[in-house]
Amino acid sequence: MERVYILEDGVYLRKNGDNLVLTKNRQTLEEIPVRNLKQMVLAGYAALSGSVLQVLMQNRVETVFLDKNWRFQGRLNVDEHKHVQRRIDQYRNLSDPEFVAESARILVHGKLENMARMLQVRGKRMKNQELLSKAAAIRALGKELGSLQDVELIRGCEGHASRLYFQVFDHLLTNKNFSFKGRSKRPPKDPVNALLSFVYTLLTNEVQTAVKTVGLDPYLGALHVIDYGRPSLACDLVEEWRAFLGDRLVLGLINKKSISVDDFVYRDVKDTDFVDEKDLRSKRPVEMKPAICRAFLQSYEKWMQQKILDPVSGAYSTQSGQSVHGMMDSVPH
């Protein structure tokens, strides 16, 4: 296995030969072979022995720490990328308003095209005029991008297109046990939004890894403004792939009834304002049960390894491989 997710609270990870052993209350939960392990993601509260840290560093296993809300906390780095010049070029280019605007236009155009294509393809298949109408409206916005020179106007165009897209997202749900009344986040207010937020977090983590691998600073982007703790470049690059990768996965699982409304915990929350992450968790109206969270992660890994046809080259590649290459080619050099 190349990637492992550890979701349990109160677990301890120790080394045993060529394996990492996950235990809780002195009971073995899982043995993880170190061989071929590329990434370990820990969500919640886990303890690692010193020998485990040494093995992870020696084998250059990227180790990502997330909180219980799947927000990024930190990453175990063996060393920083040595390509200093690449970051110097990134800082210089992203200080140039023309470069920022051009980069933002490219990113937003890709996002709008994927949203429009999703609505158009499914609108034709379902003979749904509302989907087709919104697809045409989003494509029309995409044509206006070339005339926009101000990055704030480009951001506004992206926001308008996203609102149009999510206005008809409910029409994409053929499993009528689920409903969608609009995009909500921090916290998500229904199961569909909870799944969307979860898969977007997974994709952003995927992109952040790719960004760091090539030696760029993930916290400085073009489309997303600088905000403390937010990996703006990773957020920029994932935008184009939300509909193509994230939304298609969520819709597939829901419409095939692989996920049910009973797979979620619901809370009657009156006040959703929060002061910190702990407070946010206690006020989440809905969240996945642990079993479905693990099942979703398995589906995500399988989905990202599916082979798809690249419409440009005509070659087959994995979802993750094509998306990472596409992401890294999205910003002009």
TrEMBL record:
Its EC number is 3.1.-.-. CDD domains: Cas1_I-II-III. It holds the Pfam family Cas_Cas1. Its cofactor is Mg(2+); Mn(2+). It comes from the Bacteria. InterPro entries: Cas1 (IPR050646), CRISPR-assoc_Cas1 (IPR002729), CRISPR-assoc_Cas1_C (IPR042206), CRISPR-assoc_Cas1_N (IPR042211). GO terms for molecular function: DNA binding; endonuclease activity; hydrolase activity; metal ion binding. Mn(2+) binds at E158, H224, E239. GO terms for biological process: defense response to virus; maintenance of CRISPR repeat elements. Keywords: Antiviral defense, DNA-binding, Endonuclease, Hydrolase, Magnesium, Manganese, Metal-binding, Nuclease. It is an enzyme of class 3 (hydrolase). Homodimer, forms a heterotetramer with a Cas2 homodimer. CRISPR (clustered regularly interspaced short palindromic repeat), is an adaptive immune system that provides protection against mobile genetic elements (viruses, transposable elements and conjugative plasmids). CRISPR clusters contain spacers, sequences complementary to antecedent mobile elements, and target invading nucleic acids. CRISPR clusters are transcribed and processed into CRISPR RNA (crRNA). Acts as a dsDNA endonuclease. Involved in the integration of spacer DNA into the CRISPR cassette. Belongs to the CRISPR-associated endonuclease Cas1 family. This is CRISPR-associated endonuclease Cas1. The lineage of its organism: Bacteria, Pseudomonadati, Thermodesulfobacteriota, Desulfovibrionia, Desulfovibrionales.
